[in-house]
Design brief:
Blueprint: E1 2-5, H1 12-19, E2 23-26, H2 37-46, E3 49-53, H3 57-65, E4 72-74, H4 82-95, H5 97-100
Parallel strand pairs: 1-2, 1-3, 3-4
Length: 106
């Protein structure tokens, strides 16, 4: 599984995921900070990434387009840094990996 980290999450997630054997890229490594969500969505779909986001728009894009991919892992929290929620995020990635590999919204 490859994780594409949305612009609304810190790039520190890349290192955190790497330390926990998860391949990831932050959108800032790929595109522009001002790219619309649909561009990120399409990139993730074409390149088999799971989108990791704090943004509600990706779920809306999935619903509006009836898209079958990519999977979206959406977090909702006040503190969205790895030191606050990292262990919980890792547990969810592990526990729901089969769902994430099957194009779902979590």
């Amino acid at each position: 599984m490859k994780v594409l980290i949305d612009m609304n999450l810190s790039p520190v997630w890349v290192q955190y995921f790497a330390e926990n054997a998860i391949v990831s890229k932050h959108w800032s490594e790929i595109g522009k900070a001002t790219d619309p969500d649909r561009i990120i969505f399409e990139y993730a779909k074409r390149n088999d990434f799971v989108v990791f986001t704090h943004d509600l728009d990706f779920g809306a894009i999935l619903a509006a387009t009836n898209a079958k991919a990519p999977s979206v892992f959406q977090i909702r929290s006040q503190n969205i840094l790895p030191e606050a929620i990292g262990p919980t995020v890792l547990k969810c990635f592990h526990d729901y990996s089969s769902f994430l590999m099957s194009d779902n919204l979590i």
